[in-house]
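Title: Request for sanity check on Sec-independent protein translocase protein TatC prediction

Description:
We are preparing a figure and want to confirm that the structure record we downloaded matches what your pipeline produces today. Could someone re-run it with the sequence below and paste the raw C-alpha cells into this thread? We only need the C-alpha cell string, no images.
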Amino acid sequence: MSPPEHEMPLMEHLGELRRRIIYVLIVFVLALVGGLFAAGSVYDWLIRSGSAQAFQLNAFSFWDGIGIYMKIAMIIGIAVALPFACYQLWKFVSPGLRPQERSATLRYVPYVLLLFMIGAAFAYFIIFPMAIQFTSSVTKSMGLQETYGIAQYFTFMFNIVLPVALLFELPLLIMFLTGIRVLTPMRLRKWRKISYFLLVFVAVVITPPDFISDFLVAIPLLVLYEASVYLSSVVYRRQLRAQEEREAQLRNFS
C-alpha cells in the first residue's frame, strides 16, 4: 500500500531541510579549515592588543596552543557560515512565501555578518575589558598572584564575545520572522516584559557581578529589542499595504 498523499510533501520537506543542513555544515567545515590558516594572524593581533598585554599568559597543557587555534578558527567558521546558514534558511522557507516577501526577506542576509562583527567588536572592546578589570581587581584584593593560562584567558574572552555577537542578530531575526508571518509587532509588544527580563538575565550572566557592567550591557540589548519591535512594525505595515493592493487588484478584475 502506498503512503497517503499528504505524507509525501512532509517527507520531501524533511529531505529538503536535511539537504540544507548538510550544505551549511560543509561551508562551516571549509570555513573552519580556512580559519586555521588565519588563526595565527588573529592570535598575534589579539595578544598585541587589548587586555592581553597586562598579563603574562602561560601554557599549562601541551594542547593549549592547538586548542586556542581551534577556538579562533571556530569563531571564524561561525562568522563565515552564519550568513550562508541564513540564506539556506531563506531558501527553505521561500517556497511558502509570496514573491514580494521572498525579495524582502532575502535583503536581510547581507547584514548578518555586519551585525555579528558589530556585536563582536562591542563585546571585545567594551564588555571584555570591564570583565577583566573587575575579576583582576577582586583577585588582587584577595592578595592572590595572577598567573593565568592562555586557554583560560581565551575561553573567558570567547564566552563573552560569542554570545553578545549572536545577540546582535536579534533585529534581523525579528524582521525575518515577521516577514514570514511568524511574529507580529503586537505580539512582540505583548511579550515586552518577558523579553526584558530574559535580556537583563543574559546581561547579568555574561558580565562581571557589578551593577555598572550589567547596566552597560543590558541597555544596548534592550535598545536592540525596541529596535526590533520598530523594524517588525515597518515590515508588518508593508505586508498590510501589499495585501491591500492585491485585494484592490482582485476587486478590479472581478
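Thanks, this matches our download. The chain has nine helices and two strands.
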